[in-house]
Specification:
389 residues, globular
Length: 389
C-alpha cells in the first residue's frame, strides 16, 4: 500500500481527538480515588484494548511477538516503562509553573524530542532531514507546532493573570521557576519515550507484515509491547497509592468505608500525552461521603473502561497514521502532539474553561490553535513531497 500523507494527517487528528477526550468519561466516576479509576481505566488502555484489537486486525499475534528480536522487545518495553515514569514529574511541572506554562513547556520538549530523536539515533538526521526538501519542510512544521504550543501557553498565562489574587494563589501555590523548568525538561523528555518505544518496536511491525497483516494494521502489535511497559510503571505507582491511602477496597466494595484525606500535593502519574483541558484536570471523583453512601460500582467500571478505551484509541489511530507517512514516519509525533493540544483546547472551550477571559486572551488562544492546525498541514505536505515519484 502506497503512502497517503493526508490520510495519515486525518488519522492523527482522530488520535488527537481521542487523547483530548478520554478524560470526559472519568467525569462520570463517583466516590473513587484517582489511583483506583486510573488503574481500572489503565487495564483497558494498556492491556485489554491493545491485545483484543491487535488479535482481531493482525495475523498470528502471539507468534509475531514470540519471534521478535529480544532487543526490540526489551527496548520497546523499557521505553514504555520510562514513558510512564515521566508522569511522576508532569504533576510537579504544573505545581511549580502553573497549568498553562507548565504544560506548554512539557509539551514543547515532548514534541521536539519525540520527533527528532529517532532519526538522530539512526544516524539519519542529516541525510533524511537537513539535506532533503521534505525533511526541511518537516522542521518548519515542527517549528510552527512549537510556536503554536508557546502561543497557546501564553493565552493560558494571560487568562491566569486575569484571575483574582485569591484564584491565582489557589492555582499556583508553590511557584518556582527554576524548579519548574528543570522538572518540565525532565518530564517532557521522558514523556517522549513513547515515541522511542514505537521506533524500537519497528522490527515487530515488519514481522507482522511478513505474516500477511495489512500495512495499516502492522503497528498494532508494537503497542502491545510498549503499553505493557507503560502498564508496569503505572500499576506499581497506583498500587503504592492504594496501600498508602488505603483505597484498595474500592475495587470491590460498593460502600464508602472511610473519608479519604489526600496527602498535600500528591503526585499523580500522567504524562504529556495525557494532557486534557484544565477543566477536566480540576475534576476528580470524590470519595468524601458518609460511611453508608453507596458507590455506583457498575457505572464506575463502565466509565473507567470507556475512558481507558478512548485513551488507547489515540495510539490505535497513531499507528494507522504512521503507516501513511512513508520514510518520514518519525514526523507522526509532531502531528500527534499538535492534535492533542488542538482537541484538548477545544474541550476546554466547550467546558467553559475560557468563559470570562478577555478578547485578547481568546485571540491568543485562537492564534495558537490556528498555528497548530497549520503545522499539521505543513508536515502532511512535507510527507506528500517525499511520496511523490
Amino acid at each position: 500500500m502506497s503512502a497517503n500523507p493526508f490520510l495519515g494527517v486525518c488519522f492523527h487528528w482522530l488520535g488527537g481527538l481521542a487523547s483530548g477526550s478520554f478524560y470526559v468519561p472519568y467525569r462520570g466516576v463517583k466516590k473513587w480515588a484517582w489511583e483506583v479509576y486510573w488503574l481500572v481505566g489503565g487495564f483497558f488502555s494498556w492491556i485489554i484494548a491493545p491485545w483484543i484489537l491487535a488479535s482481531i486486525n493482525t495475523n498470528d499475534l502471539l507468534e509475531v511477538i514470540r519471534s521478535a528480536p529480544a532487543s526490540a522487545l526489551g527496548q520497546s518495553y523499557f521505553w514504555g516503562a520510562m514513558w510512564g515514569l515521566g508522569g511522576l514529574t508532569f504533576g510537579l511541572t504544573m505545581r511549580y509553573l502553573g497549568m498553562s506554562l507548565g504544560m506548554a513547556m512539557a509539551l514543547g520538549y515532548c514534541a521536539t524530542f519525540g520527533t527528532l530523536m529517532p532519526p538522530i539515533f539512526h544516524g539519519e538526521f542529516a541525510s533524511k532531514v537537513l539535506h532533503t526538501t521534505s525533511g526541511q519542510v518537516i522542521l518548519i512544521g515542527l517549528l510552527v507546532c512549537l510556536l503554536g504550543i508557546a502561543v497557546a501557553g501564553m493565552a493560558g498565562i494571560s487568562k491566569e493573570r486575569e484571575m483574582s489574587e485569591e484564584q491565582k494563589k489557589a492555582t499556583i501555590k508553590e511557584f518556582n521557576f527554576l524548579k519548574g523548568v528543570l522538572v518540565a525538561t525532565f518530564s517532557g523528555i521522558m514523556s517522549a519515550s513513547f515515541s522511542y518505544g514505537l521506533d524500537a518496536a519497528s522490527p515487530i511491525a515488519a514481522i507482522s507484515r511478513s505474516h500477511g497483516t495489512r500495512e495499516i494494521w502492522t503497528g498494532l502489535p508494537k503497542l502491545c509491547v510498549v503499553l505493557m511497559g507503560g502498564f508496569t510503571s503505572n500499576f506499581i505507582w497506583c498500587v503504592l497509592l492504594n496501600v498508602r491511602n488505603r483505597t484498595g477496597y474500592q475495587y470491590f466494595s460498593s460502600r464508602v468505608r472511610r473519608t479519604l484525606s489526600r496527602p498535600k500535593n500528591e503526585t499523580i502519574l500522567e504524562t504529556a500525552v495525557d494532557a486534557p483541558s484544565e477543566e477536566m484536570v480540576k475534576h476528580a471523583p470524590e470519595t468524601r461521603a458518609d460511611h453508608h453512601s453507596r458507590v455506583p460500582m457498575l457505572g464506575n467500571y463502565f466509565f473507567s473502561a470507556l475512558a481507558g478505551i478512548t485513551w488507547y484509541l489515540q495510539f490505535f489511530f497513531y499507528t494507522m497514521g504512521e503507516t501513511q507517512m512513508g520514510n518520514y514516519k518519525f514526523s507522526s509525533w509532531t502531528l500527534h502532539m499538535a492534535s492533542i493540544i488542538i482537541f484538548s483546547s477545544l474541550w476546554g472551550i466547550a467546558l467553559k474553561e475560557w468563559k470570562g477571559a478577555s478578547s485578547f486572551t481568546k485571540a491568543l488562544l485562537g492564534l495558537g490553535l490556528f498555528m497548530l492546525v497549520f503545522s499539521t498541514i505543513i508536515v502532511g505536505f512535507a510527507n506528500y513531497l517525499a511520496a511523490k515519484p
